[in-house]
Model the fold of this input.
Amino acid sequence: MKLPPCAAAPVAAVLLACLTGVSGTSAAQAADAAALPSVDMEATVKAAQIDPRRSDDTLTPGAKAGVLLVERALRDRHLLDAKWVDGYFGTTTVAALAKFQRSLGFTGLAANGLPGKVSLTRLGAGRFTVTHVIGPGPRVSVGGVVVDTRTRSMLVEAKRLLGRDLVLLQGSYNRGGDPTSAGTHDGGGVVDISVKGMNSATRTAVVHALRRVGFAAWLRNPDQDDWPWHIHAAAINDTDLSSQAQHQIGDYYLGLNGLAGRGPDDGPKVTIRTWEEYQGR
Done:
């Protein structure tokens, strides 16, 4: 017997309640959430780093659907003009999302224009769900400098691959601490590593390992600026990144060296992955 439409909905709700272990309003809310489209946070954050650095309108692979959902939500809040709803997370979209984050009362790194878990969830309320959620985690001390727990995990894995320790010269959240860094260390996800006692092959191996686990990493030398030899590394998709570090990561994806002159990448070639992609997520 075919049920009339008025009876089908209650039956579906009861069935969903049985399957999910919830009832009543909770089942209805679960059904509503299941019907919403989803934004892949990993892909969307990646686009917010790469797209503003492009010289063309190429879209970041795998990000278009999520970026469009974000842009439409910003448009409907009158924060983004309709002409910018194009799946391209450029500087205008970054600025619009930062404005939305500030409207929530966020300041500093929480209003940096990168999609964060809370701001993305609030933006998508009733419109989309958020999948592949990422975050930097709490701040911790490593070797006398501050990093976030995601960055610490990445460093631990790089050390395991190398079979050696790494000495940190500078960590993250060091606003104004090093004028030569141009603000890259103001946020999370960024470290400088000592190369003292390393030969050329070892330096390259360290950069290679850092890149494998999800850092945009380069060997820096005194000919480039007023700094000693060291390795600079920025964690891709760390949502606490300063704007300068975001730009470095975008340039890394585009085959550049992360410096102001935007020269060609001079590091070892690896398949570029985020920390989550390296882990197989």
Q: What stands out?
A: The chain has a mean pLDDT of 90.
